[in-house]
Amino acid sequence: MLNSERSVATNRVGEIRIRRARREAGSQPNHTQHFLQLQTSYVKEFFFEKMRIIGLTGGIATGKSTVTNLFKANGFPVVDADVIARDVLKKGSGGWRKVVAAFGEDILLENEEVDRAKLGQIVFGDPSKRQLLNRLLAPYISYGIFWEVFKLWIKGYKIIILDVPLLYEAKMDRWTNPNIVVWIDPETQLKRLMARDRTSAQDAQNRINAQMPLDLKISKADIVIDNNGSLDDLDENFKKILDQVTKPLTWTEFWLSRQGAIVAFISILTGVLGYKKLLARV
User: What is the 3-state secondary structure (H, E, C) of the chain?
Assistant: First the structure.
């Protein structure tokens, strides 16, 4: 009888200890679970913080540069094709030599830099010469753009704005997503260009006609920014698109990002090392 009572008492004590241990375990941090949560958080951050290249274009005098400045003011890095185009025409550069050879030394200033105004008059009035200029400079501009993007990629930027007036003409929209077009109506565009460059209506219209029609660009665009109103209106329209350009990226965009390249490299390296170990065991 005593043995039976002792056995029951022992079992009760054991049950009490088990319940107490369970309560204590519930009140203390589960280090394994915490580690898994950290791992999950890291994987999410690593896989979803990716790089997106956003294409930004428009017509001449549509206000694209103003939109570019809004992106800069909001902390987005911008690669400006116009800046690169000016650089590739600097005295002594490869682009400079090609252009001088094709158009002659008459397009040079006294300091031997290219007279951009004079060159512009030549090419905007002659489609064949404009195509020649674009063909000569395209490789240098493309290289400059990709080099700037690569440097930002190395730094780990998640979103890059690619400001290219000839985004569709140069077929660079294949590398960008989404593509944004800044739009104004033709009459406003003509007036703004005449006022900005202090030029005649005919000259301004020739420069507009030298570019792809805005309506065609709009048909290709993912996002259109209406810039027919005031600067305050433009700012409001800009705020509306920020959510669209910062949405989660696709897997294709991820594999083109720095993180994706690292994952691919590690995966390949791990596979090769694993295969070598497997062969060593055979």
Answer: CHHHHHHHHHHHHHHHHHHHHHHHHHHCCCHHHHHHHHHHHHHHHHHHCCCEEEEEEECCCCCHHHHHHHHHHCCCCEEEHHHHHHHCCCCCCHHHHHHHHHHCHHHECCCCCECHHHHHHHHHCCHHHHHHHHHHHHHHHHHHHHHHHHHHHHCCCCEEEEECCCCCCCCHHHHCCCEEEEECCHHHHHHHHHHHHCCCHHHHHHHHHCCCCHHHHHHHCCEEEECCCCHHHHHHHHHHHHHHHCCCCCHHHHHCCHHHHHHHHHHHHHHHHHHHHHHHHC
